[in-house]
Design brief:
Blueprint: H1 10-18, E1 22-27, H2 34-48, E2 53-58, H3 61-78, E3 87-89, E4 112-115, E5 120-125, E6 139-142, H4 150-157, H5 165-168, E7 176-181, H6 201-222, H7 228-250, E8 263-268, H8 274-277, H9 279-288, H10 291-298, H11 316-319, E9 320-321, H12 326-330, E10 356-361, E11 366-374, E12 379-388, H13 395-405, E13 413-418, H14 433-443, E14 447-452, H15 459-471, E15 480-483, H16 488-495, E16 498-501, E17 507-510, H17 512-515, H18 526-539, E18 545-546, E19 551-552
Parallel strand pairs: 1-7, 1-8, 2-5, 2-6, 6-7, 9-15, 10-13, 12-15, 13-14
Antiparallel strand pairs: 3-4, 4-5, 10-11, 11-12, 16-17, 18-19
Helix pairs in contact: 2-3, 6-7, 13-14, 16-18
Length: 556
């Protein structure tokens, strides 16, 4: 058997040594969440509980297919587990292998990963109702848990992590929980930060000491130079240590028959992986990322709110939604190591026989596009897109990407909303942005309905508009909903757009961070500017918009 040396950073090492029944981690990007704790603990639980069931939990089924499973498959492969040999995705193992059925037999394999010893991993998403109903899990694994609806998790998944005590009850791994995410930036995800209060560091210290000594004795036991007499002594000690460690992890038995099992919570910055990533990568991030995003995503610092936000009433839970065409997605199969195809066929929020509404922003460093459609109750923001100058992409590239993404949309027609910033020529081209976009779309066989809105309302007027629209207390103003997946970068832009007072209770966007050059263009207000053009253009007549004075009648 080939033995490979692996390098683990400090939080990865602690996870391996402690292996608590409940493990929660808030680790920044590029710290190795999937490569180590998620891949290691999910495979370990499957190996220790043959014919058992692990629930793999996600906010959406799309998240599981596109972001959770592909890196997990690759991490398992690094550990030596091969697809089609050690596990099978969405199909049963070949009958000739005589792999046993799980304890709870699988009737429909479409949501399962089958392990070589009869263990199965069952995919549960919060946007597919009923997937966890009447299920019994022996373990739970979840990534990107900051997006979970925690109340729904408590109501549906926690009660399902039960049963089979007569088979696996002697194992500390039974009903193990593994949950990881990067730093939450919204109060919705704060629950995982509170898990740190459940850690008993005295017991953690005991487990670490015993496990390190256990590993030393195991290394001696497996050494070819170890004598049989010494092996017998070591074997007894190893059994005693294993029992002691297991008892510490499982906790004392309470009067109601339950146990307060050991909890481990950790936080990690990407600096933990500087040996692998190199200093140049950090310098690049520092140059290109907005400070608030750098702090949370890379350095793992807590920042659960944006002070003085221009869109301060924006709430992802209220104003966001997920919508996927799972009939199409399921037809692709489940083993998708590179994720799900990226085009509009996966979207279930598009009215197929109606035009798309589009609006752009034309900043030098970033070209932005927001796409929407009206519906009876809400104005739906279907998607945001952008291209960056640093990637040597220009406006025509963005239009091409739009055409490619929506090539399967049956109605090749757009309502193109644009303001005065799109009507003038520029030094490089005598044609205006609006002309260039319209000509390119028409060349691609799209019908373009040009909708010039004139000048934008003053920023203090827009500030008041978004307070009314997002508060949803006035029947005059159409509520808005954002596709959480497709418009994620737009939402990030809006959430990170600050405001500043300009006197007499009036506010405008604070673009100081953008002008300082410390903000990545995609995190700056540009995508939000495109959204404003889209929404105001769509409803300018209903809202009393005056093209000449660029004013907007705001009264709720």
């Amino acid at each position: 058997m080939e033995v490979k040396d692996i390098w683990l950073n400090k939080p990865q090492t602690l996870s391996r040594l402690i292996m608590a029944p409940e493990e929660y981690g808030v680790w920044a990007r590029a710290t190795g969440k999937t490569d180590e704790p998620i891949a290691n603990r999910s495979s370990h639980g499957a190996n220790q509980m043959p014919r058992g069931t692990t629930g793999v939990i996600g906010n959406t089924y799309m998240q599981l297919l596109d972001r959770t499973l592909p890196p997990l498959f690759k991490a398992w492969e690094k550990m030596g587990y091969i697809h089609g040999v050690h596990y099978w995705v969405r199909q049963r193992p070949p009958a000739k292998l005589n792999i046993p059925d799980p304890i709870y037999k699988v009737l429909d394999p479409s949501h399962y990963i089958f392990w070589y010893n009869g263990h199965v991993m069952y995919l549960v998403s919060q946007d597919k109702q009923g997937l966890s109903n009447a299920k019994s899990f022996d373990a739970v694994v979840a990534d990107e848990v900051k997006f979970l609806n925690y109340d729904q998790y408590l109501d549906e998944v926690v009660p399902a992590n039960r049963g089979n005590d007569e088979i696996f009850g002697h194992l500390w791994e039974h009903h193990m929980v593994t949950m990881y995410t990067d730093m939450p930036t919204h109060k919705k995800g704060r629950w995982i930060l509170d898990k740190g209060q459940q850690v008993n560091f005295d017991v953690i210290g005991q487990v670490l000491s015993l496990q390190i000594r256990f590993n030393e004795m195991m290394a001696e036991y497996e050494d070819e130079k170890c004598t049989e007499t010494r092996r017998k002594i070591l074997y007894k000690k190893l059994c005693d240590y294993y029992k002691a460690i297991s008892e510490l992890k499982m906790g004392e038995l309470s009067t109601d028959g339950g146990r307060n099992s050991l909890v481990w919570y950790s936080e990690a910055s990407a600096l933990e992986n500087i040996k692998i990533l190199g200093e140049r990568k950090f310098h690049q991030w520092i140059r290109e990322m907005k400070q608030s995003v750098l702090d949370t995503s890379i350095f793992n610092e807590k920042n659960l709110s944006v002070e003085n936000g221009f869109f301060h009433l924006l709430d992802r839970q209220l104003h966001g939604y997920n919508s996927y065409d799972y009939n199409f997605i399921d037809s692709l199969g489940l083993y998708l190591p590179d994720g799900v195809v990226k085009d509009c066929r996966k979207d279930n929020d598009i009215t197929r026989n109606k035009p798309l509404d589009i609006a752009f922003d034309y900043n030098d460093s970033i070209k932005s596009l927001v796409i929407g459609q009206d519906s009876s109750r809400f104005y739906r923001v279907l998607k945001s897109m952008f291209v960056l100058r640093k990637d040597k992409k220009v406006l025509s590239d963005l239009v091409d990407e739009f055409v490619e993404y929506y090539k399967y949309h049956p109605c090749k027609e757009v309502n193109y909303f644009y303001d005065n910033t799109a009507t003038g020529g520029n030094a490089a081209n005598l044609k205006s942005y609006s002309q260039l976009i319209t000509e390119q779309l028409r060349e691609k066989k799209w019908k373009v309905n040009m909708r010039h809105i004139g000048g934008q309302p003053k920023q203090h007027v827009r500030f008041r508009l978004w307070e009314i629209v997002l508060k949803e207390t006035s029947n005059k103003f159409k509520p808005v909903r954002f596709n959480l997946d497709n418009a994620d970068q737009l939402l990030c832009s809006m959430e990170q757009t600050g405001s500043r007072s300009i006197g007499d209770k009036l506010f405008e966007k604070d673009k100081t961070p953008e002008r300082s050059g410390k903000v990545a263009p995609e995190d700056a207000p540009h995508l939000g500017d495109a959204f404003e053009t889209l929404y105001i253009g769509k409803f300018k007549e209903e809202y009393g918009y005056n093209d000449v004075s660029s004013s907007l009648i705001i009264s709720d």
